[in-house]
Input
Amino acid sequence: MNQFTIHTSLPYVGILALTLIQPSCTGTEADNPFTDPATTSLCKGEDNYVPLANKRELQGLTQDSLEGVFRAEPAPPPPSNLSSLSEVPVWLECIEWDLSEGIFDYQVANFRGGCAVDWSGGGEVTSDGNVSVELQNKSCAVAGCGNCLYDLRSNGQLEVPEPNDTMTFDLIRTDCKGEVTVEGSWTLPIAETPHGILCRDSDRWGAESAAGNATRGVEVELYAPCDDGSDADLEGRTCADGLNCITGKCVPSCAVDEDCPLSGAFTCQDGSCQLSLAI
Output
């Protein structure tokens, strides 16, 4: 069962900048001491956004036969079983994971943050076999351009040799002082589903911004809000070709689960694709 909790102590929308900066978002591949340093994207909705690469970057140990010592050298990364992040629509916040041969690989699409955040951090396995990922906005400056959506990619360095039946995955975001601003938690059924994906509605403000700016490499049609007569704010919004407006969302028709996108995030219900575990 999917569980998601949010705690906020620092509002993003309408916040005044603590330091005057341009309201454009930046991101970086973090350089930090975590077991699995995370790679984060730039803000979606900005011209410089580029989808994260779909790969794992593992280090291998090789032996120098002449010196008789081990040294770390890059090994060819194994194929990733995770989806391309460009396939995840901005309207959904999703976590996808893959546990293979004791290595836990994951990615998070469309998590919420303030604008112009240069995230730094990574993940580690806790003593009870769960995964905690902490990202810090090291700059005390906050741009007042509303909310942004970001992507997060593991580098495939988390070892979980004896996994529990379920795993709690925490994504913690902190400010420059280390105080938690947002915390999301998922329960992953890794014994039943070693490779899976769970999704929920993403932050509406950030999704609208990303969709409105038509950022390259971003899916904006699947699960877009539409006018089904239940929300006056959506009056006149129609779906793209091949999608139908069902309960206010643009989704494709289907006959079986395999007809639906995102490899398990949706199931076929009454002839249309609906979120497997909508919350």
User: Anything to note?
Assistant: The mean pLDDT is 79.
